[in-house]
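@here heads up, posting the sequence + SMILES for the zinc ion run so it's all in one place. Ping me if the SMILES looks off, I pulled it from an old spreadsheet.
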Amino acid sequence: MKMTRKQQDDFIAQCRAAGLSVTHQRLAIFEAVMANGNRHPSAEVIYQTVRERYPTISFNTIYKNLETFEELGIVVKVNPLYNEARYDVDVRPHHHLICRQCKTIVDVHDKKLDALPAPEEAGGGFQVENWTVQFTGLCAECQPVAVG
Ligand SMILES: [Zn+2]
Ligand SMILES: [Zn+2]
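bot reply: prediction finished. Complex structure tokens:
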């Protein structure tokens, strides 16, 4: 996923609206998230990508920026099913297939899942605003080969 001019403009606008200065490093971090978008990259993956251009950048800088992006709604943190948070550039509601072995996360867009009825518990004063369905299991490549 290569960043388009519009995505860059939107990013700059979102930063400015939040009173955040747009530095080259900050832009590079956002670019790295976009470039790895399909993989739902971890902070570590983003760090490795940005380091190719900014060898002196620290992991902490990457991490803090990702947290800020999340607060601004620029990225969404995928439910940290494993210890490591993964970042999603697709901030629209959608669902995930997660392989428990190789930790691949695949986006699922499904109108039926988007229209799930609120659970009964939600009647007791809880206002549901959003939900993500996570299907966990083994992807095709991680499934053991059937013997016999
Ligand atoms: Zn897998
Ligand atoms: Zn996703």
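MO: The radius of gyration is 18 Å.
MO: One more: The mean pLDDT is 89.
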